[in-house]
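Annual report, structural modelling task.

Input specification for the S-adenosylmethionine complex:
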Amino acid sequence: MEEFKHYTVMKNEAVDALECKNGLIYVDCTLGGGGHSELILKRISPEGRLIAFDIDDDAIQAASERLKNYKNITIVKDSYTNIKKVLQNLGIKKITGGVLFDLGASYHQLTKAERGFSFMKNAPLDMRFDSNSDFSAYDVVNFYPENELIKIFSEYGEERFSKRIAKAIVETRKKKQIETTLELSDLIIKSTPKIKSSVHPATRVFQAIRIEVNHELQNVKNTLNDVLDLLEFGAIISVISFHSLEDRIVKHLFKYHSQRCHCDKNQIICNCPPPVLELVNKKPLMASDEEIEENPPSRSAKLRIARCIRKSL
Ligand SMILES: C[S@@+](CC[C@H](N)C(=O)[O-])C[C@H]1O[C@@H](n2cnc3c(N)ncnc32)[C@H](O)[C@@H]1O
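The model returned the following structure:
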């Protein structure tokens, strides 16, 4: 396999947040190249245990090689959405230390031409994190109805010209299916006004399709809820997100579960259960200026941290 390149974003901040302790159980839901996992392992060895998930074969291979000398990591090629089932199969009832999510795609995924994520490199429309999945960018572009395309381009990509682009896609595919990244990118360029910008006109639509193909927002939302059931009292959840909708999901879920009361104003007696979480930081942490200079994409990273304050039953 060609070299796996990825710059680990907010490495120290995200792992410091976990307050790693030797002997406890940690989970890295998004192993990638293993940058965060390696630092966790350094801090929890020899007694601590790390379970790390990824669905991408290249990531699993690269991280397995990088971390091969650590005996206390279990690398699982499965979606983090199956965290409850996987931990149960490993005989783990509770995450005693903490859990990390570093959401989005790795640099490797975004730049390896044949993965079909890049509008700069010609390849079949793909964008699957998991190459075994049978749903790809090709299906979205060629089979989604026009109104669905408009919706995902506007919501996930915040694309101003969603309607024009969706219309151009639908018109084009009446004649012939859209097969490649460059066909799609050319079509976007031709169907939108020329505007002076440092951002390529296809950036937002490609991002939106990637989010749709990999069910990124639904996955985060569902899994964070599952993780709350798995956290031991005192365990920490640390989440890095790159997209405003993703961050909003994390922010709202943390806020909701850290509130003491959810009662209607008119209710006299409150029967709300005690909160599950305590916010460690009210405002998200951002990458340092030095990190942004070294790795500009880290400027959109937001790190939110919370601690479980619910006693296990
Ligand atoms: C930003 S990268 C993580 C990089 C990693 N923290 C590092 O330092 O190298 C995100 C990773 O999450 C993985 N991923 C995305 N959705 C996933 C899912 N549902 N289950 C497991 N892994 C997933 C991607 O394949 C990708 O490798």
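The first helix runs from residue 11 to 16.
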